[in-house]
Each structure stands twice: as structure tokens, then as C-alpha cells.
Amino acid sequence: MNIWLALCLLLLILGFVGSFIPALPGSLLSGLGVIIYWWSTGYQQPGILFVGIAVFLSVIGLLLDWFSGAITARIGGASDKTSIMAGFAGIIGFVFLGGPIGVLIAVAGTVFLREYLVSGDISKAKKAGIYSAVGFLSSMFMQAIITFVILIGFVITLII
């Protein structure tokens, strides 16, 4: 196995793992792995169709990662300020509470608490908190699917 293939596979695996770790841009790592290997083969392998699909999926995954929490919190009735605060709380939750569960608790808790303090309406705050939690989990799930598809697709293109 050459160094470029090893690096690509490492990035693809890190990409999949990164879909469960908020601080790691999973889909970006997966797309980068494919592009690096494609470059290392003189743009011969994998084919341009697979590279295009992998890059497209990587961009979709990155956009989901960046915006899904804020969008779903907003749909749930949270303000823009609450969504921004929840983003920072997610980082703190990751560091101090550990991993995706810490992020989930921090984000949903922040949205619930802030919306309750602002509106005084517990049902509105609960709805916003639940929506933000669902957005976070669905984003993680979609990232996992995207990065897994890119990884498996890459391995299949090498075999064929």
C-alpha cells in the first residue's frame, strides 16, 4: 500500500468517526481523502464521476454540520441569539461533558433555558429544545451516512 492510499483511507475513516465528534469535520475529511488520492494517481483513480459525487456529498455534509442545529432550533421557535449561544454551548459541552452526548445536552439545555428565561413559556422552551436536539441528532446521522457511503464507494472503486 502506498503512502497516498494509506493517507486517503485514514482520512476516510477519520471522516466517518468525525461524523460523531462535533469538533471534527467528518465530511470535509472524507472529501479531502478522495481528492488527495485522486491527485496522487495523476487524476486517474477513482474516476471523475466518483470524485464529483464524493465532493458533492462532502459539501452537503459540511452544510448540514454547520447549519442544521441553528435551522432546527429556529424552526422550533428559538431566536437567532439563542441559536448562536447554543453553538457555543455545544463546544463547551463537547470539552467538559465529553463527545456527542455532551454536545447534545449542552445545546438542548441552552436552547430550553434561554427560551424559557426570555419568554417564560415552558412549552415554547421545551419545543425549541427538542427541535434543537432532533436537529443535532439528524445532522450526526446524515453525516454518518454520507461519510460511510464515501468510504464504501471509494473501497469499491479500488476493487473494480
What overall form do the CA principal axes indicate?
A: elongated
Share of β-strand residues: under 5%
If you compute it from the alpha carbons, what radius of gyration comes out, rounded to the nearest whole angstrom? 18 Å
Helix segment tally:
5
**End-to-end distance, in Å?**
17 Å
Main sheet summary: none
Topology pattern, helix = H, strand = E: HHHHH
Description:
The structure is a single chain. By secondary structure, this protein is mostly helical. It has one domain. The chain has helices at residues 3-18, 26-40, 48-75, 80-119, 122-159. α2 (26-40) packs antiparallel against α3 (48-75), α2 packs parallel to α5 and α3 runs parallel beside α4. The model has no long low-confidence stretch (mean pLDDT 89).
Secondary-structure map with pairings?
Elements: H1 3-18, H2 26-40, H3 48-75, H4 80-119, H5 122-159
